[in-house]
Queue: 2 jobs
Job 1
Amino acid sequence: MSVMEGRTTSALLYLDGVHVSFDGFHAINNLSLTLEPGEMRAIIGPNGAGKTTMMDIITGKTKPDEGTVLFDGMTDLTRLDETRIAELGIGRKFQKPTVFESQTIEDNLLLALNVDHSVKGTLFWRGSRDEAERIDRVLETIRLTDARYRLAGSLSHGQKQWLEIGMLLAQDPKLLLVDEPVAGMTDVETHQTAELLKEINKEKTVMVVEHDMTFVRELGVKVTCLHEGTVLAEGTIDQVSSNERVIEVYLGR
Amino acid sequence: MTPHFLTRSLDRSASIFILVVAGLGVLIPLSNLLLPAGSMFQVPTYLVALFGKYACYAILALSIDLIWGYCGILSLGHGAFFALGGYAMGMYLMRQIGSRGVYGNPVLPDFMVFLNYPSLPWYWYGFDMFWFAALMVLVVPGLLAFCFGWLAFRSRVTGVYLSIITQAMTYALLLAFFRNDFGFGGNNGLTDFKDILGFNVQADGTRAALFLLSCLALIITFLICRAVVTSKLGKVLIAIRDAESRTRFLGYRVESYKLFVFTLSACMAGVAGALYVPQVGIINPGEFAPGNSIEAVIWVAVGGRGTLVGAALGAVVVNYAKTVFTSGPLAPYWLFMLGALFILVTLLLPKGIIGTFNAWWEGRKARQVAANAESAAREDGIGEPRAAE
Ligand SMILES: Nc1ncnc2c1ncn2[C@@H]1O[C@H](COP(=O)(O)OP(=O)(O)OP(=O)(O)O)[C@@H](O)[C@H]1O
Ligand SMILES: [Mg+2]
């Protein structure tokens, strides 16, 4: 049973006591974290801290060995597969930008739209005005209107990052998991991305993983620092960056 | 299916393909039947049967391109679906022989009398009726593909592992059909057909009609494939081919999509086999040989994976080469040549014949557009200020 009796938490995302090990290597150790509806959270942590693995767990790619992962207080995500979790309204941008390279920008967004995803639905699909307008809006937001008929594979690294964020927008999920969105971007693009995420956060709950501290500071949201698969510190960026243990893991590497 | 559903999928190369196949489908039988034998333009009957075989191979190639070229499923066992369709048709043709067999048994085919079968096995029931056999041509390969795909795709077997188990599947069927007690004529298979729907299978008219039907089936298969790959479902298939897990995270049930195209593709291969058997006059377990399936994949690679037209063209080109070589002194070396061809195409023409042609054509068009824009700019004098900068 994936739906529990009644709500147990007000959080949109609730992780408690999660453990994952790969061949005896403990990638996630007793990880507990909650995200309130409408919140934006920045996740930082050194390489190998388990940030991406945490997203893998939330989106059903990796099954935890132990622990609770609840979405919307009711749904046990550990029992569902990737497709089901995406249908529930959790969207994800990957660390390495993953777009459909041999298809146009427009088609990438069309594929991402949260419309009927069944075999029958796509076989007999005929575009609607509403869908076309949604795609136009997303294209404008991610500033790729002029490139709409270009193949996604021809985009620069930074543009691919934006296209993938655009796909998230088209998907229109309740919770967005964004893994390293500004890697490979110029300062201006980084700033624009921060603005875009803040805009998105007006309607949606967002979790952002990022190493770029200027960017995290610009977001101005609560920060969680992970280390060796567990939460090391949580608070404002100033609190976290002045935390002794955090300084230790970042400098002691 | 609305007309829109079909017309959307017709671009220029598709229209040319259909016109050529339809033209050949009509002209070759006409020339065979109407012109006097020995005339320069008369296509002899043995060539009509040979071209009919090529048309069936082209259908098989299309079915492979649909799953491999567009969805990344490399089946090395598609010959099995082809052979099953062939056996379903062969069973109908066997039952049409009736009491004209060597042993004169009105119900049992010769091999059953020879092997002392007391009565017709249950799974031969109904094959005396054409409609039933025609249905089985689709249902048997389709059902096998559905069950096989359901198990494989749900357990997320992909890539090389999937290719290996499809080989194992066709090999297992090869062994089963070789057995005399399996009830399909053992290693001799089914042959000595007399007539189909009341027409003599050897007659020129029947051969011409079968050729025409094969061309028609090729066109219909092509139209279905085009409709599928140009629909939104086609975009999902390409997405699965290029980034399967990304597609799942967008909320697509990847295994359902794979199951759909795999089953559809197997039905097409079955139709190809069913049309093939009356034209070659025999179906035996050799058709299940793993090598056959691999050869069919090579046709697609040579013609151009993911282009449909290329797959059909590859089937014809490679088989024509095979016909030429295996009838000459080079016959023993055909397999080496096929292997060499595959390696050469992989190294020199990774997109295949049509894929390479398309890339060249697109490039030429793009250069033309750029050149036009440049000369237009020069005439408008837009080029000047730039030079002054
Ligand atoms: N499928 C896997 N099999 C084995 N080990 C894995 C697997 N996935 C992750 N790991 C290991 O788990 C640890 C955490 O990896 P993860 O990718 O979550 O780190 P991260 O915090 O995202 O790091 P980065 O900042 O470099 O992206 C790493 O040591 C990694 O090697
Ligand atoms: Mg990571």
Note: Chain A has ten helices and ten strands.
Job 2
Amino acid sequence: MWTTKGLTRGILTTPYPRSRPAEPGARPARPVATPTSEAGPAAVGVCPTGALEARGDQVAVDLGRCIDCQRCRRGDAKMEWADTGQAALHLSPADLPGRAFRHSLHVRVVDAGDGGETLRELKQLTSPYYAVHRLGIFFTPTPRDADVLLVVGPVTQGTRQALLDTYEAMPEPKWVMAVGSTAVTGVPFGPSFTTAAGLGDVLPVDVVVPGNPPPPLAILDGLLSLMGRMSAEELLS
Amino acid sequence: MSNLQIAPNAAVLAALSEILPRDSVRRGGDQAEVETSLERLPSVVDTVVRNGYALAGIVTEWEDAGWLGRYAFYCSSCPGFVHVFVHGKPGDALPSISPYVFSADWHEREIEDLFEIPFEGHPLLGDFALHNEDWPEGVAPMRPDYDRDEPKPPRSGRVWRPQRFVKAPGAFTMSIGPIYSGISESAQFRLESEGEQILYATPRLFYKYRGLEKIAEGQDVEDVLLLAERLNGTSAVGHAAAFAQAAEAIAMVTPPPRAAALRLVFAELERLRSHLCTIEELVESTGLQVPTAMLSSLVEDLLRLSGRVAGHRYLFGLVRPGGLTLDIGDAETADIVKTSREATARLSRIVDQLAYDNGFLDRVEQVGTLQVPKALHHGVVGPVGRASGLSKDLRVIHPYGAYRDCEVRIALADEGDAFARFRVLAGEAVESQHLMEQALSSLPAGPVLAPWRPRADAALGWSEAPLGAAFHWLRLSPTGKVLRWRIMPPSFTNWPALATVVEGAAFQDFPIILASFGLSVAESDR
Ligand code: SF4
């Protein structure tokens, strides 16, 4: 009986990455590099995590340190905010899995201290809006089947060993993804006595997806890039 | 409102004045303070509890000559809070109150681990927040001489030997986690059994301990508010509002009426989305894929709505001490009304169909039953409590902000099983939509931010977060630096009750019970 009821809303699934429709609210704006004259002289100082930096006559943004606090948008600072487009970054484009994994990628998710919001965005990837299995992306509960270790959270003292054990248990070749600014740099929690400064402290990272949390489409970019479905140029543009 | 005319805490203060000297009781509006001694503490606590008060949490703070232990209680049916506090010297122990106030159990274990303040008479201390295998002996991060930037200790290498409670021949332990299933938070559950039935369950949390209360020390209020939002990123507004309320009480500032009304709107939008997530996870745990997919689409509709009207899918960056960072216009108002209306209409249809689906009912009826007395005993909060007959809801008993001027209809059930929790969640989701619409239809004009200036003082803030009562204790320096931030989140209160409900259940029901409680690990671990 549920099958027919499930059809009542028609097709929700995004055509992304084939085309890039306007889906308001799916991928909210992020701060982008802004001329200092517009951003205001105080801009760099308002950022709680040091994501803003004066570079020449611009205020540049290190998205990996940005926790989406909105301060450089709504207070005295006036940074420009825009949809930054492709949101994932390769750290080692040379040895990405690429075309061999074009049609299927198995992902093991590990929570290393996330507040819950990044896990929810990952979960949304399986909702009809994104339906990532249509692209051959599967979340697997067993490390032995996994090609990719996807980590959220700053890596706490209590999750570090289980994280390393999971990595060890995965067969070669394997790749590591840090999803969320917290996993990328540890902000705003670490480094501290109980958290690392992000996943890079603990494991070699191949792809980072900044954002607090990164929306499902940004995480999807990161996964697609691993599959060789998006060129590095496309990602970095 | 008529009940505000009675002096808050009148009955309990009368009872206390019989056992305590007069000058140890300070009325202070709805926050009464009662000072007592270590010896008298048990009888004072007993009196407070007998007068219908529940424990919000225990707050310990360092002082020049030792420490201050504060037991914050809130009345479960009337306005009013009672803070019982004692001073201790280094080396003193607090008498454990958990034998008769169950909800104190985890607080005591946590404080003993992080502060090294002993609790006399507590049966099970150690290996709680700091796991033996991860932390060397003698580490107490909340002590003043411990540096937040202390290099992480190498793994202690100590062996953790879990206690086994079921001693029968053939008994075995099934251990789930800390990393398990597809996309889930890290936590461990140890289930002891002799066969098909779970006889004893121990959740082992704090793998995700981020040390929030420690790293907040010395930071500006506004920066610690960012931590409060990220404590449980799916309840950001609920916790940020409770935190901001504490900061506002200290500064004696009231957010402008428009800010109060909009805080209510965003808090209810968050509740609606959070309840949808819990319902989705519960339905998913019963294996019904189509309604799961339909529900996760509704979650996405609300996340996108939040992205459009607030610039953030989880409503981060909105709440600030003194009000909000953002005002909304007519277009956003119309968007919220339309999208939330559609989402709840669709939710109601799915809920109606599930209520007649035998496959669903078989899995949730009389499963994971939390009986009313047990719920009371554990001081269970939030929708879990309301599904076990406890009608307490901070929006109603201790109304704050715009909740003072509106009537919240409480969804209530008393069967206490997973199906009751499902119905309460659905009822509250619909009520959240009503509250939003009501507030938006009569939004006061004016600014959304009042100037906030720091003062040296301490205060309690609270809110009914999606998962239940959230309390934040805050102490500030004259320049607005945080000296102490104590987080008392709803999940921390409810986890122990979950453990007792699992006992006697069949193994295959465990995921369903877990999902029906909808608790957060991050919020508990802090
Ligand atoms: S949003 Fe916040 S964290 Fe991000 S760059 Fe702006 S001020 Fe910094």
Note: Residues A 31, 46-47, 49, 51-52, 61, 66-72 surround iron/sulfur cluster (CB under 6 Å).
